[in-house]
Design a protein that fits this description.
- Keywords: Activator.
- It comes from Exiguobacterium marinum.
- By secondary structure, this protein is α+β, with helices and mostly antiparallel strands.
- The chain has eight helices and eight strands.
- It has a domain of about 120 residues: Jelly Rolls (Sandwich).
- Strand 4 and strand 5 form a beta hairpin.
- Helix 3 crosses helix 4 and helix 5 packs across helix 8.
């Protein structure tokens, strides 16, 4: 499984495989069963994660008790809930394993200490965060200016695996539509595909 991490790291560094292997020798990796809640909304985040395999759902529950899916984090993606801008430092989101997940688990309390021990980690982490933030900003702008049909088409182009990996009501929430609307959009897309073929 560490091969996934090493290949990802090599996008941000020119280190050799051997150097990457030495750097990741003591990286903590853990497996979590499907259904595990990694973080509850309202708790203080203490961990960050990198997905080697599996799918994590990031969501929040509003005051009426409705769940809103914010993101799905899958292979070669990382997640850290940043709360420094929150007055109480508590997480506005929950994180739940939709599948059995194999994750690199980082400890936020010792993050700075890890950077001091391995300065190359800090530079790589900064590059990774910059890439993630740029992607998130672009996707959010695209999401806000697109129709539900366009959002579904973008999902099918960029992350088609999600259609088969996550419950449809969660996928609909992620797209900002009702499950019924998602069902209609999928039917129209299938009809269009048949016509094109």
């Amino acid at each position: 499984m560490k091969d996934v991490l090493i290949q990802y790291m090599k996008r941000f560094t020119d280190m050799s495989d051997e150097e990457c292997e030495r750097l990741t020798a003591d990286v903590p990796i853990a497996t979590f069963p499907k259904g595990t809640i990694l973080l509850h909304q309202g708790d203080m985040p203490t961990k960050c994660y990198f997905v080697l395999s599996g799918c994590i759902r990031q969501y929040k529950v509003d005051e009426e008790g409705n769940e809103h899916t914010v993101d799905f984090i899958t292979e070669e993606q990382s997640i850290t809930i940043l709360t420094k801008h929150q007055s109480d430092g508590r997480s506005p989101y929950s994180l739940s394993c939709l599948e059995e997940c194999c994750l690199v688990v980082g400890d936020l309390a010792t993050e700075q200490q890890q950077y001091e021990m391995n300065p190359i980690f800090e530079a790589m982490t900064r590059d990774m965060i910059e890439e993630d933030m740029g992607t998130m900003r672009d996707e959010f702008a695209e999401f806000m200016s697109s129709s539900p049909e366009e959002r579904y088409q973008a999902l099918m182009e960029k992350r088609p695996d999600l259609v088969h990996r996550v419950p449809q009501y969660q996928l609909a929430s992620y797209l900002g539509i009702t499950p019924e609307s998602l069902s209609r959009i999928k039917k129209r897309a299938m009809r269009h595909l048949r016509i094109v073929e």
